[in-house]
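Progress note, sequence design subtask.
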């Protein structure tokens, strides 16, 4: 599964469209990177760019854009309202899917090192990539801005994390960091009052409101011993919020920036605004997502509302997303299109995958003269069907009449089954890709001795993959039999034969993938690797036969009764 990170560089140019275009062209020149947004600001003289992709590609795109900005922007002539200290002022990396913050920090440091060494730009690392506690703050790193940078670089405590401690008059310095995803999210109210909307915003935002004596609006501000206003904190951490009137739709909104969705996710912010609005006699009518969002954020929201309804969360992602969109009222102003708003869907390949075909089309594609998809992909697909049947039984069991107190138990089983069938579906295409990789290796030139060596290596590398993929199919199908067995034993008794068919599918997937492991192992020059793979596959096969017999024994005993 793809690892995706987001990059949001801020360039110190917001007026010259040609300069901005040349910078963004370097990003779009990286084939696997998707440019999502370019937002220039004239008053700030600053452009915020957003793009996503796999880590190595994003690092390359970030470097090339920073390099181009250094060529085109002269900080000694720059003026703007926003704090800044470099041609590329900040460049944060943000984890989106299938990647940890720790891994993202590694990529941020990799970029920082390259920028410092190849472009001779001083680099300060901030937030999760920071080298000291103080440098976690972007404002601290950027203190003094461009005008104070020359003097700052002469002080030992301001030695850059990467690059020279030398003033770069044209490019200034850059802050490169790693942070969590930020969501711009607005909640709609059934009022036109900006003052009331602001009151709700002050209730929820982390900064809260200033404490006053007596009347909370007109009363005298309470100050601490240092003469600073005392604040009443809001209820939501990592949340900025303000109320405003939206003339276009004739309603007031709570406009929020959720600066760390691992602390305050979108659905929690929505629920809290609903609560505070109700306390003030106001009703939330819907919400609006500005920009894009990671898939997991939407799935988390859908699952949150499903759990509130005591319903299984082990249903397909499309259904979870529908629940999220309806519960949050995301379609109030305009239709919410997941393909345009969810990063992972935006990043999906345009080429049709086998698993996107209809059942009929898949069968016809398999029956064609092409050697792929073949037995390996079919084995993975059969395994996915087996896990899907177990998931179905779990979902049916979760809302069986009289079993209301067991919904969570079966929801957990459904989630496990869903994970198995999603993995096996992914392996349907991976098996065919592995076969195609072998065929491509055989087509490589073999004119020179070096060509022959490269061709042989490519064939053997592809052969290893063609062994590993069906081995994964075998293991995943075997693992799914734990869910199948549980559903046979404890699930809805009216669906016991469905789970039994799931066991037959799982064993078939194991047996079919085993054949692929054996035939590809016979072509592998690394005999030790091949031998280990065969031995591992043989154990999985034996375990699958035992599991199938045990499951079918339970099924038949229940049918007879």
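Output:
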């Amino acid at each position: 599964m793809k690892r995706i990170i987001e990059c949001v560089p801020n360039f110190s140019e917001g007026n010259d469209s040609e300069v901005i275009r040349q910078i963004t062209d370097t990003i779009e020149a990286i084939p696997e990177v998707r440019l999502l947004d370019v937002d220039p600001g004239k008053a700030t003289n600053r452009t915020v760019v957003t793009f996503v992709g796999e880590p190595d590609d994003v690092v390359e795109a970030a470097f090339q854009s920073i390099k181009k900005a250094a060529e085109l922007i002269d900080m000694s002539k720059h003026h703007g309202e926003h704090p800044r200290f470099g041609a590329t002022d900040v460049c944060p990396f943000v984890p989106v899917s299938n990647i940890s913050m720790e891994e993202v920090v590694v990529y941020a440091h990799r970029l920082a090192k390259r920028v410092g060494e190849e472009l001779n730009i001083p680099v300060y690392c901030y937030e999760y990539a920071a080298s000291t506690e103080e440098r976690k703050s972007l404002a601290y790193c950027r203190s003094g801005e461009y005008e104070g940078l020359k003097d700052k670089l002469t002080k030992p405590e301001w030695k850059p994390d990467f690059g020279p401690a030398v003033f770069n008059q044209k490019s200034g310095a850059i802050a490169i960091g790693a942070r969590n995803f930020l969501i711009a999210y607005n909640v709609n109210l059934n009022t036109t009052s900006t003052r009331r909307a602001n009151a709700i915003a002050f209730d929820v935002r982390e900064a809260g409101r200033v404490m006053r004596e007596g009347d909370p609006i007109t009363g005298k501000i309470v100050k601490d011993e240092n003469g600073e206003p005392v604040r009443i904190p809001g209820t939501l951490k990592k949340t900025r919020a303000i109320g405003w009137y939206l003339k276009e739709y004739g309603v007031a909104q709570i406009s929020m920036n959720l600066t760390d969705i691992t602390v305050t996710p979108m659905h929690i912010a929505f629920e809290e605004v609903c609560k505070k609005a109700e306390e003030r006699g106001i009703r939330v009518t819907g919400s609006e997502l500005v920009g894009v969002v990671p898939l997991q954020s939407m799935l988390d929201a859908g699952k949150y509302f499903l759990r509130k309804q005591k319903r299984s969360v082990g249903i397909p992602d499309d259904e979870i997303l529908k629940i999220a969109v309806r519960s949050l009222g995301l379609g109030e102003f305009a239709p919410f299109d997941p393909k345009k708003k969810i990063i992972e869907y935006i990043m999906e390949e345009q080429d049709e995958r086998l698993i996107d075909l209809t059942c009929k089309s898949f069968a016809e594609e398999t029956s064609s003269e092409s050697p792929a998809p073949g037995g390996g992909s079919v084995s993975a697909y059969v395994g996915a069907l087996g896990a899907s049947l177990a998931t179905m039984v779990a979902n049916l069991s979760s809302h069986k009449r009289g079993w209301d107190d067991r919904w969570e138990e079966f929801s957990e089983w459904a989630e496990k089954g869903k994970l198995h069938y999603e993995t096996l579906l992914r392996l349907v295409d991976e098996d065919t890709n592995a076969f195609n990789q072998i065929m491509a290796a055989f087509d490589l030139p073999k004119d020179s001795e070096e060509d022959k060596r490269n061709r042989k290596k490519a064939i053997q590398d592809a052969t290893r993959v063609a062994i590993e993929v069906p081995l994964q199919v075998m293991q995943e199908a075997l693992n799914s039999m734990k869910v199948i067995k549980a559903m046979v034993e404890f699930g809805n008794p009216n669906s016991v034969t469905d789970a039994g068919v799931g066991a037959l599918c799982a064993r078939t997937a194991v047996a079919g993938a085993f054949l692929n492991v054996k035939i590809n192992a016979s072509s592998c020059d690394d005999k030790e690797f091949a031998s280990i793979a065969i031995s591992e596959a043989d154990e999985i096969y034996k375990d699958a036969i035992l599991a199938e017999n045990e499951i079918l024994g339970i099924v038949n005993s229940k049918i007879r009764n």
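The chain has three domains: 4-178, 183-347, 354-560. Work on this subtask will continue into the next period as scheduled.
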